[in-house]
Amino acid sequence: MAFIIRRFYSSVIEKTVLISRSTDVFENLALEHWYYRHSDFTNKSMLLLWVNSNCVVIGRHQNPWLEVNFDPTIDLRIARRNSGGGTVFHDNENLNMTFFTNRDIYNRKQNLELIVETLKNEWNVVTEINKREDIVIDNMYKISGTASKLGRPNAYHHCTLLVNCNREFMSNLLRKHEKNIETNATVSVTSDVLNLTQINNKVCINRLMTAVGLQYLKTVGNTTTINQGFNYVTPNEQTFPGFNEIKNEMESWEWIYGRTPKFNITVKCNEKSVVLSVKNGIIENFTTACNVSLNNLVNEKFNMNIVEEIKQHLKTIDM
To answer: Of 135, 230, 271, 289, which is most buried with the most CB atoms under 10 A?
Structure first.
């Protein structure tokens, strides 16, 4: 059910809040892109709320091998989204919000102010928006990251909100380590993060969804909506024709890894080293001063296991 407000220039804008029933990162990213690609936001705007199971989501122009600490003992999903920005960790205690509008009325700051106001009104949690347009506490601890996709005619701004996520797990996955990678890819900025429950333990995902949704549906005047603008959606091909094609692309190796900007990675062992040149996730060539042949790696898909194999091989080579 949609909630309708009249803007000051007499046009009618339909505002809707949707909540995804899925916790699959690829389904939710595909749903988000489906709305961006197929919806007409000329006279409507929409807020999509969604929660994912454990995963790491990198920005469109990022290098996953630089951003994520790959651990073979952890079954972790890695996804690449369509928007820019940095890498984020998702779990079921992290709320994702996507604000859809027509490009002409896109307003990221207004969306962030809405969240700030909601946290203050509902839980007396005081936050602010920094210069990077992250939501922070005490001008230090980040609770929300933000990114956007601006097209024609549609645009969206999406952001996260840390409620009670596994910060230790997140830190281990995303903590920066020296990986000897040279690239022009977008590199995430490391930030100290905080869960909202560390400020007020009464904050929870379900109530947060309701509070943000209601705040979003408020008008400038005296009219508000009470749950009338909320709908649940299940991402699937039947409801959203073309959905499977988008989802299949987003969970493919070609999208997650093959879209990585070109990079060089230096593999060192004692005083010996090899430099791999990787384009579109494929090893193009290598250079080395060692007496080692790696021709079998050329045209192979790059992964971190190859780095370990080269290190072991270098141990057996005499200079």
So the answer is: 135
Task: Note the pLDDT of residue 209.
Answer: 97
Helix (H, G, I), strand (E, B) or coil at 34: helix
Q: Give the C-alpha separation, 222 to 176, whole Å.
A: 49
How many residues can be counted in the chain? Answer: 319
To 10 degrees, what angle do helices 205-217 and 108-123 make? 120
How many other CB atoms are there within 10 angstroms of residue 123's CB atom? Answer: 18
- Phi and psi at 37, nearest 5°, equal -80, -35
Residue reference for tokens 């039947």: 238
d(CA 297, CA 281): 12
Above 50 in pLDDT, residue 225?
no
Q: How many CB atoms lie within 10 A of CB 87?
A: 24
Question: How many of the other CB atoms lie within 10 Å of CB of 296?
Answer: 8
Residue range 226-273, pLDDT digits in tens: 334 789 999 999 999 999 999 999 999 999 999 999 999 999 888 889
Tokens of 106: 């896109």
Q: Retrieve residue 98's tokens.
A: 């996507």
Q: Give yes or no for a contact between 319 and 271, defined as CB atoms under 8 angstroms apart.
A: yes
Pair 4, 115: CB distance under 8 Å? no
Bond into 153 cis (ω within 30) = yes
The contacts of residue 116 (CB under 8 Å, 6+ apart) are 127, 128, 129, 135
Q: Of the given ranges (87-96, 123-132, 220-229, 262-271), which has the lowest mean pLDDT?
A: 220-229
